Amino acid sequence: MSTSDAPVPGAAERSRLGLGVALGLVASLAFAMSGTFARPLLSAGWTPGAAVFWRVTLAAVLLLPVGLWAMRGRLAEVLVEWRTVVAFGALAVATAQLMYFAAVSRMSVSVALLLEYMAPVALVLLAWARQRHAPSRLVLAGTLTSVLGLFCVLDLTGARLDPLGVMFGLLAMVGAAAYFVLGARPTRLHPLALPAFGLPVGAVVLGLAIAVGALPYAAPLVEVDVMGALLPWWVPLAVVVLAATVVAYAVGVASIALMGERLASFVSLSEVLFAALVAAVVLGELPTPMQLLGGLLIVAGVVLIRVASGNRPAGLPTFPDELEAAEAG
């Protein structure tokens, strides 16, 4: 089967992918708010462990009733897929967030963020190793372009490396990769079910880490400085919980189901650019011309991966030439 004979996505399929990308961008913007609005809490004496614990716990309280309603009469299906739910909570929620904060405690935020956002590259390499088939040139070009964009967006000047910090950053990358892989698995669950039932699992994991002393905890209930105004501590926490967690996870998982984990993982790179823009508005940290160039490179990489994805919106990472070989066989 030649490339010209490959099936062309229909209007419905293109609309599905377009909706998936749009939802993915919304999720990236929502996730991008977490760091900016968590900073006032951290500056006021909150530990990263306390901030992430209450972020996940309160979001779980809000999303769990929604998940129960969405799966009403079908809760047995949740029990059937309990392994996926537990893995999502333990890896995509608790591990990704906890290990990222652990990395930040030992190295610069830029390097820690760069390590976590190597997840898309890890997914491409995973597909390459598992299928023993080199990805297409478009996939490789999109991967390299997006990575180059990340290096431009992230300021690595004066960064210091710490072996344990690097390990934590790589574990955060594993958690981020699990978020995309688990979100794209074929399932009969409602799109809201995975975050609704997975977040409580993540809250339990983080709670246990705090209880055994593995995660330092401090959360003074004081006024915090937000955009030059003193506000109650719960104001920035509410933004982190509602926007950066509830909306981000719910919309993000729905977007992954529409476009697959590989494309979704590259669309998520836009979070880095959104984070810079949010910080510019809220904290007055203006992006540099190099960061703007990096944002354009990230978008270009996403476009290349989207073109290489052909008409397959979901499933495990698959390369276009492999699809042709399977159809020819």
Task: Tell me what the structure shows.
This protein is mainly alpha-helical and 329 residues long. The chain has helices at 11-43, 48-70, 75-80, 82-104, 109-116, 119-131, 137-153, 163-184, 193-211, 234-259, 261-267, 270-282, 289-308, 320-328; strands at residues 224-226, 229-231. A two-stranded antiparallel ribbon has the order 1-2. A hairpin with a 2-residue loop joins strand 1 and strand 2. The longest helix has 33 residues, at 11-43.
Radius of gyration: 20 Å
Assembly category:
single chain
Shape: globular
Across the major sheet, the strand order is 1-2
Number of helices in the DSSP assignment: 14
Instruction: Report the end-to-end length measured between terminal Cα atoms.
Output: 9 Å
Structural class: mainly alpha
Mean pLDDT, rounded to whole units? 78
- SSE order, as H and E? HHHHHHHHHEEHHHHH
| Helix content, binned percent | over 70%
β content, as a range?
Answer: under 5%
List the helices and strands and how they pair.
Layout: H1 11-43, H2 48-70, H3 75-80, H4 82-104, H5 109-116, H6 119-131, H7 137-153, H8 163-184, H9 193-211, E1 224-226, E2 229-231, H10 234-259, H11 261-267, H12 270-282, H13 289-308, H14 320-328
Antiparallel strand pairs: 1-2
Q: What would a concise description of this structure say?
A:
By secondary structure, this protein is mostly helical. It has helices spanning 11-43, 48-70, 75-80, 82-104, 109-116, 119-131, 137-153, 163-184, 193-211, 234-259, 261-267, 270-282, 289-308, 320-328, and strands spanning 224-226, 229-231.
